[in-house]
Design brief:
This protein has twelve helices and three strands. It is mainly α. The protein folds into three domains: 110 residues, Arc Repressor Mutant, subunit A (Orthogonal Bundle); 65 residues, no CATH class; 51 residues, no CATH class.
Length: 248
């Protein structure tokens, strides 16, 4: 928890959470060509390399983190035979909503443990707060999560009544709608490729190419990157994690 609180910004938090999940043997991808209202993330339990994919249209890295852990919970449920692929699921809509709610709760507790949440609330004297937008934004920054994720977590632990939560969420939705669209700066094709494919998958592709198991044409297709950028991509793999948006 101390390490999480010490991260300098949300991009560092995203890099660190993604690396932690990848170190468990999960391939983490990002995609951008599907609207957020259709899907924020998905998971595939395909051993020995299960997959989580995150919609990079979610601009805030804190939101990607929450979706990442949410999908990891689904992998765990599938691994325990508590969940099946969507095409085979026969749960009712109500029953499936309860599964989704469980995944949200589990992800929120992983990001914000109960003891840490209470300690932070006491430290900033928010025990009796009416939870204004600025209150949640300030506290969310401490945990490197989105205010919406924190609001859900506060409701779960009883720091907000349902009325407070619904009122706050309406105010937050209105605030987000009022913000101008963000413009991203230029990103090189190689950086986009690592952000999109993740380090483990990218390394696997290069290893397969080096062992002559696939051709450079195959590698370019798997990575969605022209061969001319491969040297730069190798340099990035050696330099450390990449947390930039995928391929927008």
């Amino acid at each position: 928890m101390n390490q999480q609180l010490a991260w300098p910004d949300e991009w560092k938090a995203w890099n660190s959470w993604r690396a932690a999940v990848e170190n468990l043997g999960v391939l983490v991808f990002q995609f951008s060509r599907v609207p957020l209202f259709e899907v924020r993330g998905l998971s595939l339990l395909r051993m020995p390399m299960p997959v989580v994919a995150i919609n990079s249209k979610e601009i805030a890295p804190g939101a990607r983190i929450f979706t990442l852990l949410h999908e990891v919970v689904h992998l765990m449920l599938a691994g325990a035979n508590e969940e099946r692929p969507a095409i085979k699921e026969d749960r009712s809509g109500e029953d499936w909503a309860s599964v989704e709610r469980f995944a949200e709760i589990a992800a929120s507790h992983a990001l914000i443990p109960e003891a840490a949440l209470r300690a932070e609330i006491e430290a900033v004297s928010l025990q009796n707060s009416q939870w204004a937008l600025d209150d949640l934004r300030r506290l969310a920054r401490r945990f490197r999560v989105t205010p919406l994720a924190l609001g859900t977590r506060l409701r779960e632990s009883g720091f907000m009544t349902w009325d407070q939560y619904h009122s706050w969420r309406e105010a937050w939705t209105a605030y987000i709608a009022s913000l101008p669209a963000r413009k991203s700066g230029p990103v090189t094709p190689a950086v986009k490729a690592v952000g999109r494919n993740g380090r483990p998958f990218t390394q696997l592709v290069f290893e397969a190419m080096s062992a002559n198991r696939i051709t450079s044409v195959d590698a370019a297709r798997y990575l969605g990157l022209k061969f001319q950028h491969f040297d730069k991509l190798r340099t990035i793999l050696w330099s450390g994690p990449v947390g930039l948006p995928s391929d927008e």
